[in-house]
Recover the amino acids of this structure.
């Protein structure tokens, strides 16, 4: 792994952690369905970043179960955060 990749991973972890912290504070202050979906989006997106780093370091290996050549876990980490973001936006739009 090159130094630029290490710096990129560190920046991703720091800013992801800050976003997760801010989302938790927002959820503690204002509890609504859209805010909870937004918090879930941020946390699953951060978990995706951590999983990607662990895979890049070789600590975690991809699952043997694959769909169209893509690991099921990787596919879930790509799709689930976006589903929660979409749900949060739909709830916020319908609520207004």
């Amino acid at each position: 792994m090159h130094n630029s990749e290490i710096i990129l991973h560190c920046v991703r972890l720091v800013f992801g952690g800050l976003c997760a912290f801010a989302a938790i504070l927002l959820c503690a202050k204002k509890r609504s369905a859209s805010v909870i979906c937004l918090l879930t989006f941020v946390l699953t997106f951060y978990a995706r970043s951590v999983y990607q780093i662990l895979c890049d370091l070789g600590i975690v290996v991809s699952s043997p179960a694959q769909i169209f050549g893509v690991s099921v876990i990787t596919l879930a980490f790509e799709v689930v955060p976006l589903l929660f973001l979409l749900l949060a936006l739909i709830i916020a739009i319908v609520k207004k």
User: Anything to note?
Assistant: The first strand starts at residue 66 and ends at 67.
